[in-house]
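User: Last request for today: this protein with (R)-mevalonate, please.
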Amino acid sequence: MNGASASAPGKFVILGEHAVVYGKPAVAVAINRRFYIRARRNDDFRINGESTDLRFNPHIRYIAGRNDMIPVSVHMDSKIPTGSGLGSSAALSVAFSAAMRVLCGRSMGREEIAKEAFEAECYCQGRGSPMDTSASANGGGVALNAPDAGGSHLWDIDRDGVSWSVSGIDVPPMTFVIGCTGIKAATGPLVERVRKYKDGNRFASDIVEEIGQVTLEGIDALRAGDAECLGRLMTKDHKLLSILGVSSNELNKMVNASLPHAYGAKLTGAGGGGCMVALTDQPDIVCEAISSRGGFPFVVKTGVEGVKASAKNE
Ligand code: MEV
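Assistant: Here's the final one, the structure of the complex with (R)-mevalonate:
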């Protein structure tokens, strides 16, 4: 096999970001924005036609290293905004892992891909949870650390003394609007900021616990299709995340502008900039409210397929 193509979806976190890094529950859903990759065997590593130094492409470097360091020419095309909490780097890792598996004739199991991509994310950002890579590999919705919440068990992941159990959950049809601030914020430093706050402060640890409780209640509301309850919990989660110091003025403005027309709204992903999400049945009005605060809104479709890959002989 000398060529492969793959794609993997981005995601947004409905509830539980940051607390999930410490083994608390979280729920994320894949969205209809994907990362596309084509890879073919080559004499040296190339990205979008340019010869590349892999030190500047750590995701590619890590995953290539797990696949005999076979040199490849990679073409990437992403419809997921970067540095925005929508899982773009996880989708890159998942799609590239899948493409390399096809090229090397290895198994295409979603579990193996999710795990390899999670290791790549940790290599690049230091610390994190397997939420983004699991959502991207599996598609649909995933709940972490909520084994009794009624989902179907997918896989378990252990790292640095923390264990995560990952389940697939059905997300009933609901309309979400994402609002991007346009401000890029890397996940690693935000995760690190919360870790320092939590390590030195009992109050911050209590907030992390409370996010866990809110998330468990939210998974029940989600499965029951109770938008009012889920929305209320999303807004509460936003307040807790703000206390942890990961919101921003831009995010707060967009959340507050959405709330009169939404069941609930919150930042999504690492925060610091990036995006917020609103649960609403008035998406046009929420989009206007977000635009009026300088944000870039779009309506997302959930219930999308996870990683896909196929061979291409060129
Ligand atoms: C990023 O989408 C969510 C965080 O919880 C980090 C992680 O889970 O890896 C902030």
